[in-house]
Write a structure and sequence with these properties.
The protein has about 450 residues and is mainly β. The chain contains 2 helices and 32 strands. It has 3 domains: about 220 residues, no CATH class; about 100 residues, Sandwich (Immunoglobulin-like), CATH 2.60.40; about 80 residues, Immunoglobulin-like (Sandwich), CATH 2.60.40.2550. The strands form 7 sheets. Strands 19, 20, 21, 22, 23, 24 and 25 form a 7-stranded antiparallel sheet that branches. The protein has a 6-stranded antiparallel sheet with strand order 8-7-10-4-14-15. It is globular, with a radius of gyration of 23 Å.
Amino acid sequence: MKKIYSVLLLVFLFLKLNAQTGLKDVIPVSVKGTSGHNAPNRSCDTLDIFNANNWEAFYYQYGGGGSALGVCNLKTPDRTSILETANFYDVSAAGYNYVTGGLVYFVFANSSNASHLAWNVVFKLYDDAGTGGLPGNIIDSATLTLGQIHADVLAGKLTEFKFAAPVALPASKKFYISIDTHNFAWRPLSKDTIAIVATADDVTPNMAYQYMKSKTFAPKWVAVDSFFSSKKSSLDVTLFAFPYVTATPDACSILPVSIFNFGGTIKNYQAYLNWSTAMENNDKGFYIERSKDARNFTSIGFVAGAGNSSQIKHYFFTDANLKDINVNTTYYRLKQVDLDGKATYSEILPLSLETIASKLKLYPNPVKDGATIEMGLNAASKVQLQIVAHDGKIVQAIDKGILSAGLQQIYINTNGLAKGSYIVHIKVGDKKYSQTMVKQ
């Protein structure tokens, strides 16, 4: 009897907590991230792209369907609807005076009704005047169609929006960029999908806000962390939305080369470097530089750039001469050079012989028929996997035995899995790792 009372008490406390917070649970889904950027000077920059080098990329699904940071069916008793999703920026400590547009990372942009691809998505610039930390007055806006964003997603591009002319920042130099989808819906007969990529929960303070309405309250701005939760705690995220900011109105007539996904692995005393660009203007290419101490760098190779491009480009370089370096950690950076001789540097990338092990990737995600787990092993290790459903049931177990050092890929057949979210547990030697996987 005491056990029954204890269980009832726990249920009561759980329900009371949820009633107090009112948070709506969401499911994080990992996607390929964007990272890395260094502007040629501080007169023209793309906010947060450099910071994004340290961010993992996710979109968030709501249980009733759709994207929590975009369009979804909240299925709440008061029929809450999301009208806009925005991100906050504070450049009061920088020399920026204007915003000219920006880039947004969408992972989905589609509709079950083909005619809806002609519908508009409005990118709005708000000030923070008199709102107590919420978007205030609309300063300017730019419009694209859902079809244009859909084409960007299919092409692997970030979506670029531009205002008709450079817009002066408010005096506070605090502003918001919003993606307005008020005319979209997620219904059984009409599903308009917009999903904006954001950071993992709790990696950054919450910078995301949404404009909502319901049967019980008029349209209003709400902080995402006061409405949504991930893993039973408030959802604190920053959108992958990167405004173009300038010191003068004409400073961004040519935008800088944006470097993404600068990373690498070490295998058999060889470093395999990779990076991507979201856009290139006047780009001659990249000198790869190496250092033992992160201070003194030497050029070890060159990779030609694309010149001018608005599509994501992928680059690779192998440093095959690590055996004689005789250090545990080797540091790399990219020196990007324009055709006119101007040069900028990427962030510094440390690669260690001791800490490369077991970096995990699961792709594609969401998955249909099969997924691949990719990992880098420093040494031969026993590898085991389990796929666990939301109810805790193990639906698939894989024992790969002992795998050799280096890059390993493990294929998972997901044909027999029902649609939904799963946790993939990976055990490498005595270490354990987990990845979220969504079956479509």
